[in-house]
Amino acid sequence: MTPPTIAPALAGGALIGLSASLLLMLTGRIAGISGIVGGLMTSAGRGKDEASWRLAFVIGLLAGGVALFVYRPQSFDGAATVNPLLVALAGVLVGVGTTLGNGCTSGHGVCGISRLSKRSIVATCIFMATGMLVTFVVRHVGGAR
Amino acid sequence: MSDERFDPRINALISFGCGLLFAVGLGLAGMTSPAKVLAFLDVTSPAWDPSLAFVMAGAIGVHFVFALRARIAAIAGRAPVVAARFFLPEQKRIDRALVVGAALFGAGWGLGGYCPGPGLVAFVVTPLSVIFVGAMLTGMWGTRVVQERLETRAANRAFALENERAIERALKQEREA
User: Fold this and answer.
1) pLDDT value at position B38?
2) Fewer Cβ atoms within 10 A, N terminus or C terminus of chain B?
3) Closest Cα of chain B to A49: distance in Å?
4) DSSP readout, B8-46?
5) A24 at B interface, C-beta within 8 A
6) Interface predicted TM-score (ipTM)
7) pLDDT at res. A47
8) Above 60 in pLDDT, residue A4?
9) How far, in Å, CA of B96 to CA of A123, rounded?
């Protein structure tokens, strides 16, 4: 188990909120990661101007990953599972789920709740609940890990 | 949605900066560490780590103010700095797709320890997240293909039905004439 890290969590959260606020006030876009990435897969989102800001955001995320790896490698600690099949299953569930549900932790959990969107509040409660349920089953019922 | 008054390169540059800032925020917050994520989701454990709840508190605390300002600006007909309008979600209905989608997403988050943002941030760093991101993109793409096909089918069916009715009306008029 990990020791609580309240201060960096609050500070990191504030940076996420700042990033979402800058994107919204400057470009008018919602900083929902699954929406930004998924938009690249629609015919409308593949237009040149539409695709460029989406790709640029994703490249920013990847660049941020490199910076974190260099200056703060503990940011990537741990693995939920080392079984590549389970990781692939997790990825498919996240991809299908965020597309059907129109959002993830950022789009619903941060941007949507900030707008007091009922859809986002419901979605966030549901994905938190199933996330906790699966973690409970894997850790305490399955006995693995 | 191109607009000649705005240079898409400026938008891309701002987006890159926001993506970078977003990633650093996720990393500092602990969202990119599956160990932290699972310690947060494992609520029944005596060693439950509530830290990640504070990520949401910090993010919403800052974004709430600006989301409200954006909404007021959008209603007043004002535009953001480098775009013609605000692109705010218009869906209001809580439907089955939202509920099922959120449930599946949560299950994947608990199973793999990554949500979409952190998965991408970890992409160049941890080999497992390469598998995760590949599978996630496949899932996103596949779902959209099926969705688009269903929409096309529904549109075609509506079109065929409308045609059939038009023919019937024409025949009826002919008989009556």
Assistant:
1) 96
2) C
3) 6
4) HHHHHHHHHHHHHHHHHHHHHHTTT-HHHHHHHH-TTST
5) yes
6) 0.95
7) 76
8) yes
9) 11
Question: How far is Cα A119 from Cα A111, in angstroms, rounded to an integer?
Answer: 12
CA A24 remoteness from chain centre: 17
Of B42, B60, B134, the CB nearest to A91: B134
Distance in angstroms (rounded) separating the CA atoms of residues B123 and B133? 7
Pull the structure tokens for residue A36.
Answer: 């930004």
What is the per-residue pLDDT across B25-83, written as a single tens digit (0 to 9) for each? 999 999 999 999 999 999 999 999 999 999 999 999 999 999 999 999 999 999 999 99
Q: Give the containing element (helix H, strand E) for B151.
A: helix B127-176
Report the distance separating Cα B110 and Cα A102, nearest Å.
19
CB-based contact A28:B6 (threshold 8 Å): no
CA pair distance B36, A5, nearest whole angstrom: 9
Q: In whole angstroms, give the CA distance from residue B63 to residue A16.
A: 9
Q: Which two tokens stand for residue A38?
A: 């998924």
pLDDT at A145: 47
What is residue B4's predicted lDDT score, i.e. its pLDDT?
A: 66
Main-chain phi, psi angles of B125, to 5 degrees: -110, -50
Cβ-defined contact of A33 to B122 (cutoff 8 Å): no
What is the reported pLDDT for B20?
Answer: 98
A25 vs B111: CB contact, 8 Å cut-off?
no
Q: Which of B117, B75, B157 is nearest to A36 (CA)?
A: B117
Count of CB atoms situated within 10 Å of the CB of B137: 20
| Whether pLDDT at A90 is above 60 | yes
Tell me what the mean pLDDT of segment B153-163 comes to. Answer: 95
Distance CA B53, CA A109 (A): 11
> Virtual CA dihedral for A57, B125, A132, A141, nearest 10 degrees?
160
Confidence band of B150 (pLDDT split at 50, 70, 90) = very high
Q: Tell me which residue in A60, A106, A109 faces B15 most closely, judged by beta carbons.
A: A60
Closest CA to B34 of B140, B121, B141: B121
